[in-house]
Amino acid sequence: MIAMGFDNVYESIGEDNDDRHWAFGTGFSETLSGVEQSLPIGIDVNDLAAYCLMLGDDALVMSHRLQEWVARAPELEEETALANIALDLLGQARLLLTRAGVVAGSGMTEDTYAFFRDENEFLNVRLAELTDADFGALMARLFVFSSWRLAILKRLRASKDQVVAAVASKGAKEITYHRDYAAQWVVRLADGTDESRSRIVAGLCALSPFISELFTASAVEQRMLYAGVAADLADVRTEVVGVLLEVFSEVELEPQVLGAGYCALSARGGLGGELDSIRSQMMGEHGSGSGREGILMGAIALAEMGEHGSGSGREGIHTKAMVELLGDLQSLARSYPGATW
Amino acid sequence: MPTSNEIDCGFEAQDSFDAAIEDHKRIEPRDWMPEGYRKTLVRQIAQHAHSEIIGMQPEGYWITRAPSLRRKAILLAKVQDEAGHGMYLYSAVETLGADRAELTRKLIDGTQKYSSIFNYPALSYADVGVIGWLVDGAAICNQVPLCRSSYGPYARAMIRICKEESFHQRQGYELLMTMMSGTQAQRDMVADATNRWWWPSLMMFGPPDGESPNSAQSMRWGIKRHTNDELRQRFVDMCVPQAEALGVSLPDPDLRWNPERGHYDFGAIDWEEFRQVVAGNGPCNLERLRNRKKAHEEGAWVRDAAMAYEKKRAGAASVATSGPPR
Ligand SMILES: [Fe+2]
Ligand SMILES: [Fe+2]
User: Fold this and answer.
1) SS3 B264
2) Do B145 and A6 touch (CB under 8 A)?
3) Backbone φ and ψ of B109, nearest 5°
4) Which end of chain B is more exposed for a tag (fewer CB within 10 A), N or C?
């Protein structure tokens, strides 16, 4: 017998919150309940705040790109998975931006950081802000992004900042799922049809100009590493290379697929002359039939290296895509001064 | 030619179906059911599933634009729920022998409908609140009785869905409460959105009882529990005090309490507008279907790849089982 009667349609509205919907209820602050919130001794607060912003902005901006896929995913299962991943990242962003405000003692909140900073004040890596040509490009980017972020969060579980450590230990579980989800799609697409293989290859190639940035520590990150707060990006690189190669080898993708990015990964450096050889290797490898188009797109991405190759998101330098992203993110919040939401 | 034995079975099956309906027992996928019952259910559940999916669009637009991160998280979770609702409902309709891909094709080519309410635009962030309050609210009124649908899989899907819809309704209302205590510009947005959504949400209950030809049969089959007009009246009776608490007025000069009936009287609904929107002439019909079609077509290569991949793996697995020649 069903208890829900017609006469009290709204009865269930008074029920307790479902945990999954933490955003509405008290779940948000509960994440940090019992966590030591005081500032770690001997740590530069400006550096710590900036480090929280870096990690928070990565999550906020990647989440935004995933949100853009709502109502346009290839299948309903992907619809819910992508929204889920976007929600997890948004949750991490909120905690980290909030922490940045507390640490800086500036009165900044998650919302003032998200909606009232300008482009050059955002500290996310540029990989997070790129637009995705198709689902293959999204999966390629999500795979690299979450492999990288997972490696970072795993190390941050031992961070000297207790809040960063708490966010990392919750986040690492979430990102493990994100990485596995994306890795499965990379494998499926690489070993699906000729078209899907060429698209996933193109998606990976397009990332190449933005790979080296992931493993290059900014001055703040170096100081925070020394202070026991941040993750060591050299260690992170070792782990990420292992994960990528494992997945790539399962479907016989050459590591060169990440092009110049792979050069940075393997610390071989020296980009100029190698571009041509990478490109020709890629053409030789998968250069037949409909794969050619994907390879070509990858090669174009490589050629654009000069344009994107300098500067870094960690220093507030971004791509054109970021301007348009912030327009979407911020314009409503900015157009109603004094409003409460 | 059926044998006499089979005909007997048919009669027996019809009898036990009738008895189950009579006793308010649930019909399950393996039970015999009349073809009309099956067809009506397929149409009803598919239309419901399509509505969940198309319904993601008006609010989905606002996710990336939400004015606070908390509101963004709430809205994203809600729209994700709607995708989940679509999934449960497509699964329920598949127990009747329908196929999700085929149903999607029928949605895209316009053979099957979705709720007309989603052919209206969501013009401001107040619309997110009003959709939660009125549209999810009307959906709850419509759907809570369906938790007692005679068809088991549908009834079970509705229980879970109703729980989430009531959550959406409460969140929408809470957003409006917050906006009403904000700036004048925000209060104006709420008033404007309420004015635009009120009448369309009354239309969500379908045509008046006199013009709803299939209702009687559906009521007998236990796949509809109350008439359109009954449900509409319930909805109005619930919304009026909620609007008062909110401090927003509903756009109907004829709306007043009738102590004799014990219900609120309300003005005449513009059924011509309803027919126009159902016929495809609403403000957003083309856009909604175009978006759905685009997403579906752009996803074709992904679905093909997933299928090709499964096939290869299945092939590899069967080779592995048979083992290498010795
Ligand atoms: Fe729903
Ligand atoms: Fe809903």
Assistant:
1) strand
2) yes
3) -90, 5
4) C
Subunit contact B65:A331, Cβ cutoff 8 A? yes
Rounded to a whole number of angstroms, the distance from the CA of A264 to the nearest CA of chain B is 30
Total number of domains constituting chain A: 1
Given a cut of 80, is residue A257 above it in pLDDT?
Answer: no
Beta bridge partners of B151: B27
Q: Are A128 and A37 in contact (CB under 8 A)?
A: no
CB contacts, 8 Å: B186 with chain A? 336, 339-340
Query: pLDDT tier at B75 (50, 70, 90 boundaries)?
Result: very high
Please indicate whether residue B1 or residue A271 has the higher confidence score (pLDDT): B1
Q: Which two tokens stand for residue A170?
A: 């919750």
Hey, what are A187's tokens? 């494998």
In a domain, A152, yes or no: yes
The Cα of B311 is separated from the nearest Cα of chain A by a number of Å equal to 9
* A234 bridge partner residues: none
Closest residue of chain B to A137, computed from CA coordinates = B302
Do residue A192 and residue B147 have CB atoms under 8 angstroms apart?
Answer: no
Model confidence pLDDT, tens digit, residues A173-230: 999 999 999 999 999 999 999 999 999 999 998 998 899 899 999 999 999 999 999 9
- Per-residue pLDDT, A310: 60
Give the C-alpha separation, A150 to A162, whole Å: 18
- A262-277 pLDDT, tens digit per residue, is 545 543 333 334 344 4
Q: End-to-end CA distance of chain A: give it in Å, rounded.
A: 40
pTM given for the model? 0.88
Q: What is the complex's ipTM, to 2 decimals? A: 0.92
Whichever domain contains A236, its CATH number is 1.20.1260.10
pLDDT of residue A1: 32
Please indicate, yes or no, if residue A252 is contained in any of the structural domains: yes
Q: Which residues surround ligand 1, an ion (CB under 5 A)?
A: B 52, 82, 85
Residue A9 counted as domain residue: no
Residue range(s) defining the domain that contains residue A242: 44-305+317-334
Contact B308 A193 (CB under 8 A): yes
A188, B170: Cβ pair inside 8 Å? no
How far apart (Å, rounded) are the C-alpha atoms in residues B175 and B166? Answer: 14
